[in-house]
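ok trying again, last paste got cut off:
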Amino acid sequence: MTQVKEIFPFFDTRCEYTGDEEIISGHINRTYRVDTKQGRRFILQKMNTYVFPRADYVMENILLVTGHIRDKARERGADPERATLHPVRTLAGGYLYEDGQGGKWRMYRFTEGAVSLQSCDSPEVFRSVGEAFGTFQRDLADFDAKALHETIERFHDTPNRFAALKKAYETDACQRAAQVEKEYRFVLDRVPHLADITRAMEEGTIPLRVTHNDTKLNNVMVDEKTGRAVCVIDLDTVMPGSALYDFGDAIRFGASSAAEDETDLEKVFIRTEYFESFLEGFLTGLDGALTPCEIEMLPRGAWMMTIEVGIRFLADYLDGDRYFRVEYPQHNLDRARNQFKLVADLEEKWDALTDIARRYS
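nice, full thing came through this time. structure:
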């Protein structure tokens, strides 16, 4: 693989490379923090072009969205330098560099004084994360969704995700289907509810919004000193979508009691107090923008995103682990089992979570 040191000079940083460290928390792209002699730091990423074959579309979306958010930050008196990502130009004037092997690279300024959390140790911090994602949606409420490319077609179309799983199971290209019969049956039993959100959007019961579509806890930078959210990152999948998806993905990742590849399923459950804290922060950030129907359906968003991600992990396992990065052969299967345990726990706590949402509607 092309070395980071060799790629760095092709970006207009006006700095001298001194070292780099890979950040391994992401599933999709290869991400590195680069240090320089001048003290400035940068994030350099090699994009996964299997997932994002049109890397240029991704960067066009990011440039539009980050520019809009900076304008909104100025309007409300926030610091535009810390309110969003700042892509760095290449020396050629664009925002993507293609190496000799066809790899696509991009760069951002490093957000100093902030960290990306892999787990949340208090409901208060998770509330701040919820407010950040709510503010993100509020900032983009007047953004023309038609200006955005669809970087991954039908990304949060859960019935379509199930169709892909069904095809992978029946094709069984890697001879793994026999290992996942229990997990596949778990999904089959829940097929009648997989279209609840897509149907509501088609019927106009809930509105289409510009959404982040990958609202994991670690996609918010948090101030090291205050614990307050600084900005939302990982904008590759910003597209038109539903607020329920953004809420749900955050819950299934941040309100879980364990990492998403924890194999001891006794340790895996939804923390109800974290659910409520995020919900409160999310609605605060949105500042009244959600409809009563959307608020009432927030628990369904958590359920839907958790089972959808489990479906995606399981389908990728059956398909030979082509989408998500894995550290060992059964990694995606372990992730799927983890998510399905969360789905079961959400179902057990359904009445309590529904009552929480209704209190805010």
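cool. The two ends are 51 Å apart (CA to CA). The mean pLDDT is 93.
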